[in-house]
């Protein structure tokens, strides 16, 4: 690994160039068929090591409580962490500008020559795989928490609440969050 | 409605929707569909579905792409650009401000507790997102098998996910699902 690890080096903020932030999120965006979270985690945690698994999950939590596309939120937060406002702008530009322009042209071409049955079949296969990748990303994020059974329980509750009850995401989130935070508070009280 | 006011109305509506799109843009898709298809008749139901499928198939920020396709239908290229900016602009401002505040109190004990409480929920919701996507996209057992195989390979191996996605496209394109 030739990248300087932001986790181990002090003051690594200055060493990550804006160009690196821009190109990394450009890469994430161009790869992200069916959802960018898979690629964002892979890039930020596995490859660049700009954030730990924990920090990535925390950042994602923050973004989930705000409106908007969460993955873009992650890009903005990672950029802000590395280089402040201009870093956030670099990450956002990388994530949005070029991919949207390319996507838009591709899409417009497709619409002119639309062969939707074939496209939808291919799309079906891609989306099945994309779903699997998203599940795997969640499992990866869960690994650091395996040692805390209560955390696994709350992850299971959030999963079940979202998949089986048909409740809006926000209801599940705001319903479980006070409970989960209260339990974490009690646990950290005991630990002290 | 004159040809000038339609793209503006769309952009304003998108900006408002983006401010309440908790959990991402899919949560406000039903409202968007009502607005552009039923209330204003800018695109047909069929077009809306096709644009959605198309935006999903193309890499990049899918929802922004969907909005710019709709903006394009309504007001040409300027409409597309205005729609895209209206979609991601407001949330990005929120993200940045919130992250700054959040980061300032990173070492506060209360924040560590909040983090420990929230992280499992976030993770559960990510896995749920994948599950819901699998169920709605491909209800059959073949689709489920493909999803499980992809998840297993992604967890166990270091294979580049692009290969998995390409394989999925081939399987789907051959009509095996």
Notes on the protein architecture:
The complex is a heterodimer of chains A (192) and B (177). With 192 residues, chain A is mainly alpha-helical. Chain A has a domain at 12-115. Chain A has helices at 18-31, 37-47, 53-64, 70-112, 116-142, 149-164, 169-191. By secondary structure, chain B is mainly alpha-helical. Chain B has a domain at 1-104. Chain B is 79% helix and 0% strand. Chain B has seven helices and no strands. Chain B has helices at 5-19, 29-39, 45-57, 62-104, 109-137, 141-156, 161-173. In chain B, helix 1 packs across helix 4 (62-104) and helix 3 packs across helix 4 (62-104). Chain B is flat. At the A-B interface, helix 1, helix 2, helix 3, helix 4 and helix 5 of A face helix 3, helix 4, helix 5, helix 6 and helix 7 of B.
Topology:
The complex is a heterodimer of chains A (192) and B (177).
Chain A lengths: L17 H14 L5 H11 L5 H12 L5 H43 L3 H27 L6 H16 L4 H23 L1
Helix pairs in contact in A: 1-4, 3-4, 6-7
Chain B lengths: L4 H15 L9 H11 L5 H13 L4 H43 L4 H29 L3 H16 L4 H13 L4
Helix pairs in contact in B: 1-2, 1-4, 3-4
Gist of the model:
The complex is a heterodimer of chains A (192) and B (177). Chain A is built from seven helices and no strands.
Structural class category of chain B: mainly alpha
Describe the sheet with the most strands of chain B.
none
CA radius of gyration of chain A: 19 Å
- Using DSSP, what is the number of strands of chain B? 0
The overall pLDDT of chain B, averaged over residues, is 87
Number of helices of chain A: 7
| Termini Cα gap of chain B | 44 Å
Largest interface: A-B, 105 and 92 residues
| First-residue to last-residue Cα separation of chain A | 38 Å
The sequence of SSEs of chain A as H and E is: HHHHHHH
* Largest β-sheet summary of chain A: none
Work out the helicity level of chain B: over 70%
Shape descriptor of chain A: globular
Q: Beta-strand percentage of chain B?
A: under 5%
Structural class of chain A: mainly alpha
Tell the overall outline of chain B.
Answer: flat
